[in-house]
């Protein structure tokens, strides 16, 4: 998905301007990519529609790089769709009751313990209970977890009626004035009537403050039907997305949120008790896009890079009048962004460790400082016209900058190569324009 979205966005970016036709084309690819990531069709359609309005209305053309701005628009819209800010639990009852529902293996029992521990850390007295009457092992699993975190677990191992256990647990919680009762329920591998009916009855009995639907982030397309069934038949007030530590991109988050409209409140991010956190829409949005930290890079860049400066630089680059003077200015612009190693890591598509290592080797801050020192030691005339830099000038420059003639040579060679590459690019652009090619 990440690659697709990136290539779609790149294509828009290369054009330099976002007109309606180009935007349409790019968005169509983003749409396909989202569908491929198992996001529900209706959710995708609404999403694309919103993006289109925003991207066209936002006069994206004005900025430094429309592609980056579009990434930001897509990202912001994803965050919006995923629910904006992380939403807190709504606990009013005394005791408050939290009911966990969902399929078997989705992570309910683990989440029950994680949630209980999370609330305990906030100073709440918590009671856990399991009403999974089908699998004795499931009750013991919760008991073990409860022991581990020092939270009491109410069990009736012989009881076969789940509703009865729930009722008794609530009585105990009331009697012993617990703040919160967390109820872990049974699940099936697939949605079935009996399971939904039982969950509904338990819910009727304990009247929970929060009914949290637990879903595995790797569930795929089926997630929409499962979420819908639970929401319609049992009802839910929020969602917990588990196994976010897997390599799933988070398409499930978008679907489930889109189809139920209920807030995603927590994310499970590992098997351990502490691998649990409030759901952060912005993180998941970045993940769905596969953009790493590009959004923060864009924000940072917008702060430090003067638009006009960048534009005039771009014109110079393409006009072929690029000098060592301009080169130095560009180096400074890049350095203002922060440590290069960090910036490199923010560039999307550089997920490949090999590529990352190579780049890091090629560009490092110390090298940049040396390059700048070399250019600083040149006379303005030399900077404007590198051709006059002969052997004796090179020796002088090397001495002045505390570098070597070899380094000065290498820099000039690199500069000439870059200049040639730019000319080449310019030619290609002209050719493309003649042919009427879009990208
Ligand atoms: P239940 O059947 O819904 O009660 O699911 P469990 O709580 O028993 O979890 C099923 C499996 O998923 C167990 O092996 C858990 O350790 C694992 N699990 C649950 N939540 C997470 C999570 O956030 N990350 C990872 N990696 N594993 C999880
Ligand atoms: Mg369980």
From TrEMBL:
The residues listed in the UniProt record as binding GTP, with positions renumbered to this chain, are: 102-109, 184-188, 242-245
Superkingdom classification of source: Bacteria
The family database entries (Gene3D superfamilies) matched by this protein are listed as:
P-loop containing nucleotide triphosphate hydrolases (3.40.50.300), Signal recognition particle SRP54, nucleotide-binding domain (1.20.120.140), Signal recognition particle, SRP54 subunit, M-domain (1.10.260.30)
Pfam families with a match to the protein in the record: SRP54, SRP54_N, SRP_SPB
Enzyme Commission designation: 3.6.5.4
Which GO annotations describe the biological process of this protein? SRP-dependent cotranslational protein targeting to membrane
PROSITE patterns per record: SRP54
Cell location? Cytoplasm
Q: Which residues form the SRP54-type proteins GTP-binding domain?
A: 263-276
Q: Can you tell me which family this protein belongs to?
A: Belongs to the GTP-binding SRP family. SRP54 subfamily.
What does this protein do, in the record's words?
Involved in targeting and insertion of nascent membrane proteins into the cytoplasmic membrane. Binds to the hydrophobic signal sequence of the ribosome-nascent chain (RNC) as it emerges from the ribosomes. The SRP-RNC complex is then targeted to the cytoplasmic membrane where it interacts with the SRP receptor FtsY.
What is the protein name stated in its UniProt record?
A: Signal recognition particle protein
The organism of origin for this protein? Desulfurobacterium thermolithotrophum (strain DSM 11699 / BSA)
Gene encoding this polypeptide?
ffh
